[in-house]
Structure formats: structure tokens, C-alpha cells
Write a structure and sequence with these properties.
With about 230 residues, the chain is α+β, with helices and mostly antiparallel strands. The chain contains two helices and seven strands; from the N terminus they run H-E-E-E-E-E-E-H-E. A hairpin with a 5-residue loop joins strand 4 and strand 5.
């Protein structure tokens, strides 16, 4: 009988210990989860925004198939987000937009016209096709080029100087919708027209250099000057 009572007391004692251990474990887990919750910032409610369904290069007229709608945390919205596909369709991109990246008012033109692709404070300057003489490839929208001017020196010798560095190509081949096709072999006539995005004073320098001599474009390596 004594042995039975002692056995029950031991069992009861271990039961109490097990219950206390379970309670302590629960408290520890609850405390840890509470700490984790405090580390997660409040993202806010989800709101629909427009994102690029594929990579879109500068100078491209946006179509419905290039876009999609996603839910995005309101706390982390970019500046000037678009909330409907119709707000972007038909407008020209002024900056590259990667697939999955939000399409914002800062990366597309203000209207559907060609002037909408010109960023605020800049000018689109069309160069003489002869500026591509000697180039094996035609620069495309979004490429960057240095602009060289070859002028007659005081001693009668030609002198070449770099007048602009790493300026962006707005369009090539007479259209702003060429970027998806990639660089192509130089051809003749209007297909060789190149338009640059420059500041107003740079446009004046280009006009003066074209009137006084010859302009030549030199492709800049990807990423340089951006």
C-alpha cells in the first residue's frame, strides 16, 4: 500500500512538472512571436497599381500588352504611381522600365504626342544623318553617345573636339518606337536620323557645331554616365 501511494505521489509530481514546462514553453513561444511581430513594419493596405509586364525601353509607345495590374502595399508606393492601365496606354516612355517595376508618371510622357517623351527641361535635337558616317551600328533609343565636332583650325588643319559626353539617344531611324528591335546595320536616308535628348544650351552648341563643321557620334559603353 505504501509503495502504491509513493508511486502516485511521484506520478503527480511529474505531472505538475510537465504542466509547468508546457506553460513556460507556451509563454516563451508567445513572447518570441510577439517580438517577431514587432519587427515586421506595417505595410498598410494593398492598392492596385500598374507595373510593366515586360522590359520597356525609352522612347516606346506603351501598349496594353506591356502592362499588368498588381496589388502593392500603400506604405511603399512609388511617387506618381498609375492606378489604371488606360493612364499609360499610348504614351511614350522617357526612362527604361524593367519587368515587374511600377509604371509611374515620371517614367512616361505627359501625353501621347512625341513631345511627351521629352523630359522636363530638356530638348530633343535631330542630327544630320551624316553624323553616323563611319559607325557600324545605329544607336537605338536609350543608348548613350559622345558627340564630336570636327572644325577647321586657324592654321587650316581640321581639329576634332568632344563637345558633349554621354548624352541619351531619344530615337533612331526617324521613329521613337525602334528600341525593341535592337541595333541595326547603318543604312541610308531617313533611316539614319538620330535624335538626342539634351539641355537647351547643349542644343545651341550642337547647332553651332553642325553649322561650322561636321558632327560625329561615338557609342558609349553600357552604364557609363548613367
Amino acid at each position: 500500500m505504501t509503495t502504491l501511494v509513493l508511486g502516485r505521489r511521484r506520478t503527480s509530481r511529474w505531472g505538475v512538472i510537465a504542466v509547468l514546462a508546457a506553460v513556460l514553453t507556451g509563454l516563451a513561444v508567445y513572447s518570441y512571436l510577439s517580438w517577431l511581430r514587432s519587427q515586421v513594419p506595417v505595410a498598410g493596405r494593398l492598392v492596385p497599381i500598374v507595373v510593366a509586364a515586360t522590359d520597356i525601353e525609352p522612347g516606346i509607345r506603351v501598349t496594353d500588352g506591356m502592362l499588368e495590374m498588381v496589388e502593392h502595399p500603400s506604405r511603399y508606393l512609388p511617387q506618381e504611381p498609375l492606378t489604371a492601365v488606360d493612364e499609360a496606354v499610348g504614351r511614350l516612355t522617357t526612362h527604361p522600365i524593367l519587368a515587374g517595376e511600377p509604371v509611374t508618371g515620371r517614367k512616361i510622357g505627359r501625353n501621347a504626342g512625341a513631345s511627351g517623351a521629352v523630359p522636363e527641361g530638356m530638348r530633343a535635337y535631330g542630327l544630320n544623318p551624316q553624323s553616323l558616317d563611319g559607325m557600324a551600328l545605329v544607336p537605338r533609343s536609350g543608348d548613350r553617345v559622345d558627340v564630336l565636332a570636327t572644325l577647321a583650325g586657324e592654321d587650316g588643319r581640321a581639329k576634332t573636339v568632344t563637345i558633349l559626353t554621354s548624352v541619351q539617344v531619344a530615337s533612331s531611324g526617324g521613329s521613337t518606337n525602334d528600341a525593341g528591335a535592337g541595333s541595326s546595320l547603318v543604312s541610308s536616308g531617313r533611316d539614319r536620323a538620330v535624335t538626342l535628348l539634351v539641355m537647351p544650351d547643349q542644343a545651341e552648341a550642337l547647332a553651332q557645331a553642325e553649322a561650322a563643321g561636321k558632327i560625329t557620334l561615338v557609342l558609349v559603353p553600357t552604364g557609363l554616365g548613367e
